[in-house]
Amino acid sequence: MSLARLGQSLVRRLHRPLHLPPPPPPDHYATVSRPFAPIHANTCVRGFASLTYNYNGGGVISGKFGGPSHVHAAQVLELVVLLNHARPMSSGAGAAPKPPSLSEGVSFGGYKVALKADMPSPGFVFEPYRVPEPIPLWKRLFTPSGWSRTKEDAILQFMNAFTVSRLRKKIGYNKKQFQEQAFNIYKEVNKLIARGDIPSLQKALTDDMHFTVKNEIRKRQSKWKSVHWELVEPSVSIRTLRARMISLDKNDLNKAYVQLTLEFITKQKFEAYNSKREVVSGDKSKEVLVKDIWVFERSLFHPGAYWRVCARITL
């Protein structure tokens, strides 16, 4: 496959207009992914804080929005041309990269939260992560569908690399430090959900996500009086699955949002109680293997921006 054909394909893909799905029914955000049920050790399940999101044909998570959006996907090919004229970033010896900062502010779950509020979230996840379908090597190398799949994979990896390069240049992104920071947010958000602390959750969630979690907590409280949730540390694994940039202005790289999709595999303990403090679900003496995929978001153009949870993806 020639570079020219690959470049033309990138241009066509990145210049497609981004359309958002129609608005969901009013009670969409009150929906819970599934009722809590007794869980058993050595079973991989989704976390108890999991929420429901519906995919449409375009791969965008449904939410409280509708109609065409003024937000456009980052025009990656055009940005690469600009980067070629910019000073290249050094990955060798020198000053250590500055860890992603949550800005100066109040303490929240072991990290800092900015006192100045972040800009409103775009309200959707750009290209939600999906598990890639396995493809045999012979098919990838010798069939038209395999060549097309290779081209698509190359585009996805290119967009990941471009977003990470922008993060490094703008905020001094470091993968290991960010994953530790995201894990602290993951742990603290789950604790607050278990306690039903709706006001404190607002610091770590986008507005739409906070509205969703608030309804989920209220629905849970109508069934159970209280819950016990515990995270067994350290985590089993943390992986960064996808990195995407949503550009508000293709002529200004700083006017953009970045979304990083992380997979958490952890061991957790859960138990639910009724008003008489009797156990009605779960068993806190057993460890359960849990897999969660969360999307973290922050703006690049706001000086007081910090990472927040904007969605949870259900595969």
Automatic annotation (TrEMBL):
Main location: mitochondrion
Gene3D superfamilies cross-referenced by the UniProt entry: 3.10.450.240
SUPFAM superfamilies xrefs: NTF2-like (SSF54427)
Name listed for the protein in its UniProt record: Large ribosomal subunit protein mL45
Keyword field: Mitochondrion, Ribonucleoprotein, Ribosomal protein, Transit peptide
Pfam families named in the record: Tim44
Residue ranges annotated for the Tim44-like domain, each copy included: 160-314
Phylogenetic classification of the source organism: Eukaryota, Viridiplantae, Streptophyta, Embryophyta, Tracheophyta
One cellular component term from this protein's GO annotations in UniProt: mitochondrion
Location(s) in or outside the cell: Mitochondrion
InterPro entries with a match to the protein in the record: mtLSU_mL45, NTF2-like_dom_sf, Tim44-like_dom
UniProt family annotation: Belongs to the mitochondrion-specific ribosomal protein mL45 family.
Organism per entry: Triticum aestivum
SMART domains tied to this protein: Tim44
Highest rank taxon of the organism: Eukaryota
